[in-house]
């Protein structure tokens, strides 16, 4: 099964977050925002900084920023910085051989798939991901507030505690949308 590692997934999430927050953010802020384990995210951010995709500022006001424009950072570059080379099968490594090489009928089709996958990941930028996030936020329906309670009673019985949506004491609570 083809799938991104958790590290690569978290790295892309962090890069997109930083593209949306130009002032930068700390590992703690990003982890809290997306429910990502802080120690793992910190290691991923360090790899991205070593790969030249992020700059790190240390100290009490420390954090991370994109090292260059989000339009110039591809998903492929980020994944490689975190996980190393992206390989579909072992026959695409430098050694390039396996026990089936002499009679393999799928090497060439797999090479085409591999190259297409690399091309697709290379064409998607962090800016594209950030733009998609902004579009999704705009297209989402507004969050609806929960219904509010309104008592049909007045006077002392109205202020008595009662269960939501149930008859309580001498009164009745109605739930309605306001």
Structural commentary:
The protein has 178 residues and is an alpha+beta fold. 43% of the residues lie in helices and 11% in strands. The protein has helices at residues 6-20, 27-34, 38-50, 75-83, 107-123, 126-139, and strands at 54-57, 63-66, 148-151, 167-168, 171-176. A hairpin with a 5-residue loop joins strand 1 (54-57) and strand 2. Helix 1 packs across helix 6 (126-139). It is elongated, with a radius of gyration of 26 Å. It starts with 5 loop residues before the first helix and ends with a strand. Mean pLDDT is 79; it is low at 149-178.
Largest sheet: 3 strands, antiparallel
Structural class: alpha+beta
Low-confidence stretches: 149-178
**How many discrete structural domains?**
2
- From the 3D structure, determine the CATH topology of the largest domain: Arc Repressor Mutant, subunit A
Give, in order, the helices and strands.
HHHEEHHHEEE
Number of strands: 5
**Multimeric state:** single chain
Helix segment tally: 6
Shape: elongated
Side by side, the strands of the main sheet go 3-5-4
- Gyration radius, to the nearest Å? 26 Å
Average of pLDDT = 79
CATH evolutionary superfamily of the largest domain: Winged helix-like DNA-binding domain superfamily/Winged helix DNA-binding domain
Give me the CATH architecture of the largest domain, please: Orthogonal Bundle
Strand content: 5-15%
User: What is the C-level CATH assignment of the largest domain?
Assistant: Mainly Alpha
Distance between the termini: 49 Å
The portion of residues assigned to helices is: 40-55%
């Amino acid at each position: 099964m083809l799938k991104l590692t958790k590290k690569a997934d978290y790295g892309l999430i962090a890069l997109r977050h930083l593209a949306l927050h130009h002032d930068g953010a700390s590992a703690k802020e990003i982890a809290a925002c997306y429910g990502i384990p802080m120690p793992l995210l910190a290691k991923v951010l360090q790899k991205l900084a070593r790969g030249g995709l992020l700059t790190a500022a240390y100290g009490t006001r420390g954090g991370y920023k994109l090292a260059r424009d989000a339009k110039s950072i591809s998903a492929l570059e980020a994944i490689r910085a975190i996980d190393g080379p992206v390989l579909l099968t072992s026959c695409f490594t430098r050694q390039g051989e396996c026990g089936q090489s002499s009679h393999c009928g799928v090497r060439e089709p797999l090479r085409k798939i591999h190259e297409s996958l690399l091309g697709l990941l290379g064409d998607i930028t962090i800016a594209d991901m950030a733009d998609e996030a902004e579009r999704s936020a705009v297209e989402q329906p507004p969050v609806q507030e929960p219904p509010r309670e309104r008592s049909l009673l007045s006077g002392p019985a109205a202020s008595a505690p009662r269960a939501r949506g149930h008859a309580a004491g001498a009164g009745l609570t109605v739930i309605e949308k306001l």
